[in-house]
Amino acid sequence: MDFYLGLAQVIGIHTLLGLSAWCVLHTGQVSIAQGGFFAIGAYVAGMLTSMWGWPLGLALLAGAILSGIVAVAVGFPALRIKGLMLVVATTAFAEIVRLVFFNLTWRVQTPAGLVGPDGSLGFGGIRYFPGNGWSMLEISFLIWFLVAFVMLFLGWLDRSRVGTLWRAVGEDELAAQSAGINLTAAKVSAFGVGGCIAGLAGGVFAHYATHIEHNNFGILLATFAIAYPIIGGLSSLAGTLLAVIFIQGILLEGLRFLGDWRSLLFGALIVVVMLVRPSGFLRRSLGESFGRTKHA
Amino acid sequence: MDFLYFLDLSQSIIDGVLFGAIYSLIGIGFTLIFGVMHKINLSYAAASIGAAYLSLLVVSAVPAPLVYVAAAMMGGLLGWLVYLICFRFLPLDNPLASLMSTVGMLLAIEELISHVTRGMPLNFPALFASTNIELGPYFIRGDLLFVFVLGCIAMVALMQLLKRTRLGLATRAVAQQPVAAQLCGMSVNATNASTFVIAGLLGGTAGAMAGAAIGVLSPLMTLPLTVKGLVVTVIGGLGSIPGAIVAGLIVGGVENLFQFLRGVSERDIYVMLMLFVFLVFRPGGLFAAPGGRD
Amino acid sequence: MTRGQQLVGATLAATIALTFSSAAFAQEKTFKIYGFGAKSGVVGIFGQQSEVAMQAAAAMINKTGGVTLGDGSKAKLVVEYLDDRCTAEEGINALRRIAAQNDAVVAIGPTCSNVAEPVFGVLQKKVGDASDSGLQFPLYTDVAAKGGLAAMSQWAFRNVPSEANMYKSIFEWVKSTRPDLQSFWGGVEKDFAHSNATFNVIKTQAGNTGLQVLGQSEWLLNDINFSNQVREMKRANADLVAISAHPFTTCGVLKEMARQNVKPKMLIGLTSSSSMETLQGCAAQAEGLIIPTSFAPVTDEARNAAAAVQALNPKYNMDLHNAAAFENIFTLKELIEKQKIMGRPDTVQADRQKMRDGLAAMKQTTGLLGKVGRTDDREAIKPFLFVQAKGGNWTVAHTPAQ
User: Fold this and answer.
1) SS3 sequence, C42-110?
2) A229 within some domain
3) Which of A211, A223, A274, B136 is 20 to 30 A from B89 via CA?
4) What does the pLDDT look like over A43-91, one tens digit per residue?
5) Residues C37, C53 contacting (CB under 8 angstroms)
């Protein structure tokens, strides 16, 4: 049972990461920066609970808010660039964040000894969950509560005016601008919300793994982040969840019996999925599938 | 600051610029594909290293220069395969799907290399490995100079190809107006495929050069080359081949310069910051591409 | 449904079915020892070699009748090895998956130090601490060697060489046999935790024996240009150069040193690089490189073990990493018998506790090169020797008094 709960936790964390990328992709921006916000959330939340004994909720919130602020700061210059240039710029940003944490050494004396990020040696001892006796079930509930909250929030956002603005900007920027939509507000808000969610995901990840280091937050993680909404289908939130379950649950854990071939098939299967279904698993949002039409 | 310090500083820059020729070759490949298809092929650097690995199949039978030719040809073949698998059958108006597809390809190639070689770094034949040209107090590595010259030849050859041949004409036509080109009887698929093959030839050469410059091949090389290649493409200007060459040399030189000044832990931060500076002050890149559809 | 949807649906259904299928029932009584580590990816060779070594050891034990369980019955040892791809998440997943099996009493692994830290972190820190909800499962590590990790949890035990001891010994040997070497220059792979941590040890020990530490060159794990670093090395012109890096960058640096004509009087390397990979990549340039290691085929047991691995699968050999995995299987077999482990599904948690207590109580284990001591920190004090790269092979340079 614990194994499945552990798997559920990983799927939850990755779903949050995928949802953060969904926000940004929705406005037509391909951003590899989600890994950077994930890292910021992870380090900030991890440091707050293990070095200064903050309660988990406040630490996660602080991590999310800080990531959101950085995301807004990144979102403004990102307005000027589109397409491949944005991909490269956000990749560069994510690498800078990773390198900053690679160089970060800040340890404090706690009752448990010297704790804190130690440059390339990593940041261990984030034992909030086991140290405070959280059971696997409780941790899974927390993570999935957060996932549900974020999905409901994004679903509400999608159906509100903000969502319409995002979709308009995502479909055709020129037309949106001609219709009087404030491009800046739409793009920067998408970046900000995406950054917050990624920071939240990162904070949870740090507590799940108990030890983080800069190598955890490389380009590959950011690529996974955008893979989930793309494979899941951009018009649907549930699609992202489905894609995470597919990749983490089925491809990574389910194919264990294949041994060495699992990693080989991983990349190949992604290619196959894109060939068979280029617009993602779910083409319409869940609401639409159940008969409700999208409001204009 | 004494004479030795400045000597080392300038030698660093020279070494970096020569090494940057490899980045230039990769950048040309990225920019060529983007210029023609307006899509990114993230698996390009991985395919280039893969081509270098494939050329090792003949290393015991042929002399070193032919190994490089083999790498180039394998690169062309891999390029065509990537086109077939990741681009040919995907709808043109869905850039995200082909992006993801190339990501999958990147993972698959890297994993295949690790699987076949069991992660062991493999020896790669180096041309002019022990040649060191002395220019006053400076040492210029013969093999890096060779790569540099090769890159220049590649650029010239590519420019000639694009400007003087029918294939080049078709490539430019398809890049600017695919529908009109089709109406003129050009096959969009065949042209795009040949673009990938040409980019692949360059990539295979780049992979072989990278392997020769370090002396060993390892799957660890794919990701950094991908990132550097993308940075070079953007700084040089999307779709501009001279831009990619110049940008590659600049990135190589700056990288080594910052490493000398600030050490290896902070080096890449400065390279990325330089990218941001370019994006803010010159978003079109060094040589903004001549009008296209964008 | 379109053909594409049918295909995807069928694949999904098939994989889901296979995911949840249970293991086949064995004909005779078996006792499973699990392992986990990196079996694919760039460092996949470590996990693959560990698995083969564990299987070779198990085969040897089974040939003499297998292991005797707590109820007196005999069982054959079976090895199952999971791949964690050297990432923290998969390492934790793999461990949880193993812990969820009701035939899992102990596991050998992981191979990557950056997986060991998070994995040890999710274990219960102190035995009997009811407020700690960490996993209660004993681990006996074979490869992950970054210093001091077993201290993280009372359920974590390691059989890896102590790099502090080995490098202290090698520098003392250098001081006594080569008093002409006065100065030291280091090279370190800065972004890999293990290389970085070991380098700190190397530098300290070098300084302690009186070598003048002139400085160090740094590079990253997948760097491809070492001209700056080697030029610094050349300028310093130190007598002894120590390189704390894995085979890929070690070879890159050695080749650059050859190019720039940098020839220190002595070259010392990182323990992990005393394997075939370094010689595959740059045997010519590595000539003379001395590395302290915990395995070489110098005793009968070591030679037999190496032969057993080659016989099982000629693609693999025995090196210091999977020698530990081999030793672990034998140690665990003794513990199963000593602690009277029952090996039944209903005794699983009790068996794990007994195994942990048994591992903690060990004062000494039998290694392939001699007796291996145990520390209070649940680490090992392994016999070691110094090997040198000569003509494309690792030969023994010196066997220090232990």
Assistant:
1) CCHHHHHHHHHHHHHHHHHHHHCCCEECCCCCEEEEEEEEEECCCCHHHHHHHHHHHHCCCCCCCEECC
2) no
3) A223
4) 999 999 998 889 999 999 999 999 999 999 988 887 777 777 888 888 8
5) no
The number of domains in chain A is 1
Structure tokens at B126: 């180096």
Task: Please give the residue range of the domain that contains residue A211.
Answer: 2-218
Q: Does any domain span residue C373?
A: no
Q: Is residue A286 part of a domain?
A: no
Residue A118, φ and ψ in degrees, nearest 5: -125, 55
CB pairs under 8 A between A and C: 124
| B214 with C224: Cβ contact below 8 A | yes
Name residue B43's amino acid.
Answer: S
- Per-residue pLDDT, C25: 46
CATH number (domain holding residue C133): 3.40.50.2300
Q: Provide the shortest C-alpha distance from residue C265 to chain A (in Å).
A: 30
The answer to whether the peptide bond before residue C110 is cis (omega within 30 degrees of 0) is yes
Q: In angstroms, rounded to a whole number, what is the distance separating the alpha carbons of residues A288 and B11?
A: 64
Domain count, chain C: 2
B43 touches chain A (CB under 8 A): no
pLDDT digits (tens, 9 = 90+) for C47-96: 999 999 999 999 999 999 899 998 889 999 999 999 998 999 999 999 99
Residues in chain B: 294
Does a structural domain hold residue C18?
A: no
d(CA C114, CA C41): 15
Which tens digits make up the pLDDT trace of B122-161? 888 877 666 777 777 787 877 778 877 877 787 788 878 8
- pTM for the model: 0.88
User: For residue B13, with 0-12 CB atoms within 10 Å meaning exposed, 13-18 middle and 19 or more buried, which class applies?
Assistant: middle
CA–CA separation, A274 and B100 (whole Å)? 7
Question: Between helices B222-236 and B95-117, what is the axis angle to 10°?
Answer: 150
- Phi and psi (nearest 5°) for C132? -100, 115
Does C314 share its domain with C350?
yes
- Judge whether C15 lies within some domain: no
C23: pLDDT strictly greater than 50: no
- What ipTM does the predicted assembly reach? 0.88
Q: Out of C48, C96, C192, name the one closest to residue A6 (CB).
A: C96
C33 and C75: one domain? yes
* pLDDT single digits (tens) A87-114: 888 888 999 999 999 888 888 888 878 8
Q: How far is A135 from chain B (nearest CA, A)?
A: 35
With respect to residue A188, please indicate whether it lies within any of the assigned structural domains.
Answer: yes
Q: How many CB pairs under 8 A join A and B?
A: 124
Tell me whether residues A84 and B101 touch, CB distance under 8 A.
no
Q: Is A182 in a helix, a strand, or coil?
A: coil
CB-based contact C209:C174 (threshold 8 Å): yes
Domain match, C246 and C392 both: yes
C172 located within any domain: yes
Q: Domains in chain B and their CATH numbers? A: 3-118+132-281 (1.10.3470)
Using CA atoms, how far residue C232 sits from A163, B4, B119, B252, C253, in Å, is: 56, 11, 30, 19, 12
Based on the domain organization, do C129 and C216 belong to the same domain?
A: no
In chain C, residues 259-278 whose CB comes closer than 8 Å to chain B? 259-260, 276-277
The reply to whether C72 and C110 lie within a common domain is: yes
Host domain of residue C121 = 29-160+299-368
- Domain check: are C127 and C203 in the same one? no
